[in-house]
Amino acid sequence: MNPSSVAAVFFFEWRRAFTLARMGWWLALALFPVLIISMIRIALRGEYMPREAWTLMLFTLIPMLVSMLGTFLWATPVVSAELERKSWVYLAVRPHGTTHVLLGKYLVALTWALSAALVGLCAAVAIIPDGDGLQIGGTIARITMLSCPAYAALYLLLGTLFPKRSMVTAVAYTLIFELIISFVPALINTFTVQYRIRTLVFLWGDMTTDPEMNSLLTFIGEPPAWEHVAVLVAYTLVLLAAAVGVVRGREFSNTEESEG
Amino acid sequence: MIELSHVTKLYGTVIGVNDMTLALPAGAYGLLGPNGSGKSTLLNLLTGQLRPTIGSVRVFGESPKNNVDLFRRLGYCPGSEGLYANVSAYEWVRYLCQMQGMKSSVAATAAHEALITVGMNEAMQRPIASYSRGMRQRVKLAQAIAHDPDFLILDEPFNGLDPIGRHDMGVLLKNWIAAGKSLLLASHLLYEVESITDSFLLISGGRLLASGTAAEVHALLVDVPNEITIRTSDPRRLAGVLLEHEITDSLRIDHNQLVVSTRHPGKLYQQLPGWLAETGIAVGEMHSADESLQALFNSLLKIHRGELA
């Protein structure tokens, strides 16, 4: 592993990513939470909304929606875009090729999504009333910094496993596992990112977990929080290692479809 | 340099390369074959992008799959374009040099020199989207040679080049060979390869039909009839003369042309002027396609298909 080659990929891809379309997406992602929070405030007409409700609202908007969508858009097509453009071959025959490219692009996807999420969070927190914003913002920021790397690694792996249908596969996986199975109170939901970050928002957000008070209790994990953090970090590293393993072991050549 | 041992590559039930065994020392070789013959599959096996289904591939004595040491010695210019539209040639080649493990400043120098070598002095800072096909081809070559590899593999490098570009590319490749470096040049156009090297591999249907110099392959074809086309005002009469001297294997009259197939072309060339003088038959043009590599290629394909003994 050569960090300078990963850095070279990172800067090259950042430079390439400065297109109007991509910047438009970044802006849309960053502004979306602000738009929703503003609409809620307008709808409330000055009525009180408890801190837990704002926390859950921001959790849904930032670590769930923006993180998921941002990393989905940038990390999933990492390999498929190169294959479709037929530029993968130039990278595959380099000593510091595929692995470094994958990790460099992962960092690009992570920084694009994380920056959009954190900028969106800062703007949204600024318009939350009653001075709870900073506390809520701190909680959500910590969770975002765990969810973005995990989702980026997850989508990166899906993109390397299914390069021909990467986006469709990632959408299907998200809908089935992250948005449905993560709510199934069984062992399988503990393998989802959603389950872990949902647990953390309850633990770090000092939200009550009394079954009579909160129907979500059956869908969240037990303390301690560090265990969920450790699982998310390990999950990220394992997924990244798996993606690297797939890229190194797999044949991505499309010679069969070519003329020669 | 290259060792293939009973290499077969299957894509499901489709055969890309079929039981190919080959050992090539360092040098310059042309890889010839029609479209779909397995050239690109073979190149992908040599560059480690594909693994053989059966058999083994060695380049410089090593398996090419994920082989960092080998990739340092290898320059590859694929047939597909695959360039980024919104970066300049300089940025792209520098980036790929960094993927070779070069430091940024060294990569910048290497990219600059390689682009100058391929004649991209003026345009190297422009976005690739603004390049002509020929310029893109030059950029592709630049990325392959920028890290000064020992072995250069080129897949259809003349595609899209204008006559001047072809000439320049030819000169560059001849200089490459003259510098003692190795080259494998894949093409479906024989004259392109002939102009660079006379050692070649001929493949079709994933099989190696022949390898060696043009002379060596000619030796394989000693019993194969050569085809000679004679343009004359009286092809029927000339056909009669040739039949009378029993020098042809077959004859075909095509308008004012007589197409002769013979196993004794030398004898025919030697005696034909005399027969023409005796009979007063005028010949406007005579040529033999079999003097080029194209003829060898066609004949080998016919042998492979069982059309010739």
What are its keywords?
heterodimer, A: 260 residues, mainly alpha, 0% strand, B: 309 residues, alpha/beta, Rossmann fold, Alpha-Beta Plaits, 2 domains, 6-stranded mixed sheet, 4-stranded antiparallel sheet, 11 helices, 13 strands, 38% helix, elongated
How would you describe what is shown here?
The complex is a heterodimer of chains A (260) and B (309). Chain A is built from 10 helices and no strands. Chain A is globular and about 60 Å long. The two termini of chain A are 34 Å apart. Chain A has 260 residues and is an all-alpha fold. The C terminus of chain A is likely disordered. In chain A, helix 2 runs antiparallel to helix 3. Chain B has 309 residues and is of the alpha/beta class. Chain B folds into 2 domains: 211 residues, Rossmann fold (3-Layer(aba) Sandwich), CATH 3.40.50; 65 residues, Alpha-Beta Plaits (2-Layer Sandwich). Chain B has 11 helices and 13 strands. In chain B, strands 5-6-7-3-8-9 form a 6-stranded mixed beta sheet, with helices on both faces. In chain B, strands 11-12-10-13 form a 4-stranded antiparallel beta sheet, with helices on one face. Chain B has a 3-stranded antiparallel beta sheet with strand order 2-1-4, with helices on one face. In chain B, a hairpin with a 2-residue loop joins strand 1 and strand 2. In chain B, 41% of the residues are buried. The mean pLDDT of chain B is 85. At the A-B interface, helix 1 and helix 5 of A face helix 1, helix 2 and helix 3 of B.
- Integer count of domains of chain B: 2
Low-confidence stretches of chain B are: none
- Mean pLDDT of chain B, as a whole number? 85
Biggest sheet details of chain A: none
**Gyration radius over CA of chain A:** 20 Å
- Binned, the helix content of chain A reads over 70%
Q: Which H/E pattern describes the elements of chain A?
A: HHHHHHHHHH
CATH architectural name of the largest domain in chain B: 3-Layer(aba) Sandwich
Strand order of the largest sheet of chain B: 5-6-7-3-8-9
Q: What is the CATH H-level superfamily of the largest domain in chain B?
A: P-loop containing nucleotide triphosphate hydrolases
Mean pLDDT figure of chain A: 88
